[in-house]
Amino acid sequence: MPLIAVLAGDGIGPEVTAEARRVLEALGLDLSFEEAPVGGAGYLATGRPLPPETLALAKRSDAVLFGAVGDPRFEALERRLRPEAALLGLRRELGLFANIRPASIFPGLEDASPLRPEIVRNLDIVIVRELTGDVYFGEKGRRETHEGLRQGYDWMSYDEREVERIAIVGFEMAKRRKRKLCSVDKANVLETSQLWRDVVNGLAGDYPEVELTHMYVDNAAMQLVRNPTQFDVIVTGNLFGDILSDQASMCAGSIGMLPSASLNAWTGTVGMYEPIHGSAPDIAGQGKANPCAAVLSAAMLLRHSLSDEASAQRVEKAVAGALAAGFRTADLGGSHTTSEMGDAILKALA
Ligand code: IPM
Ligand code: MG
């Protein structure tokens, strides 16, 4: 029986993860669930944001259902004790280098986007973000300049194997979709990006059916607002992907709608599934959070870790059904609560 590790975390994490779990349970599959604290909750329970028991559970599970981490109470702690360290630790320890972030718009949500409806209608893009390298995991620290000034530094780098494996995920994804891959970098300035571009170009011959283009990240940020439907699959590094995926979420109406999967290979067995929104401490515990991103992350879990495409589509249709029935949380301009939205999804599932 597949074991799902439920790491709900901080802020709205527990509320939205509870709805995602309810949906998974309602499918009638043979699944077992085990919960463990992570992030600020992990720190409170054990003094460490990623307790060893939590990491061990994640490692022996078939998939990780993740909520969110981040808690302003712990912002002043040293970096390795902050909630975010748990997320970065899980990504590194599980080898989750491929982050799949789809951004598509559900019919009826065009008006929830701050962009004009005609700009975002039919939006359906996937951002493939590298997740275990780049400036996130390079050497970092503080030092003093020769003038005695405090200086902070973070080393940006990619080696060719890191670029190749994420580029393959991008090509494979594009191959199964509209066969357009846009690689986003800053090769006009960064040597890391020039290597990235060279490696991506080197793979293009293996995928003659995929149309490959390159775009600088500043231009990509502009194009995502100007004409987001020009994109099919975007492949990019860790930092650029972090920024562009938040931006893409606004094209899709609300950050409360966007799921993600973090995988250890294109045909990976290890996966962690989380909404891309954060812990939103300002609305935590008030029943205001949108559970759709968490529920859609559960759908990705079914698809990628349990190879159950039929159940994944059932869940996605149920979310669309709840939206079509008029259910909207506050981020979508409505006033339904987290659990009312969850109930509506369950009803649509039945
Ligand atoms: C994300 C988040 C994380 C990141 C933070 C919480 C460390 O913003 O998953 O996009 O920067 O990767
Ligand atoms: Mg982010």
Describe what you observe in this structure:
With 350 residues, this protein is α/β, with parallel strands linked by helices. The protein folds into two domains: 1-96 and 271-282 and 304-350, Isopropylmalate Dehydrogenase (3-Layer(aba) Sandwich); 98-263, Isopropylmalate Dehydrogenase. The chain is built from twelve helices and twelve strands. The chain has helices at residues 13-26, 40-46, 52-60, 84-93, 117-120, 160-175, 191-203, 217-226, 238-251, 292-304, 309-324, 338-349; strands at 3-9, 32-35, 63-68, 98-104, 124-130, 140-144, 150-154, 180-185, 211-216, 233-236, 261-263, 271-273. The strands form two sheets. It has a ten-stranded mixed sheet with strand order 2-1-3-12-11-4-5-10-8-9, with helices on both faces. It has a two-stranded antiparallel sheet with strand order 6-7. Helix 1 (13-26) runs parallel beside helix 12, helix 6 (160-175) packs across helix 7 (191-203) and helix 10 runs antiparallel to helix 11. The longest helix is centred in the middle third of the chain and has 16 residues, at 160-175. It is globular, with a radius of gyration of 20 Å. The chain starts with a strand and ends with a helix. The mean pLDDT is 96.
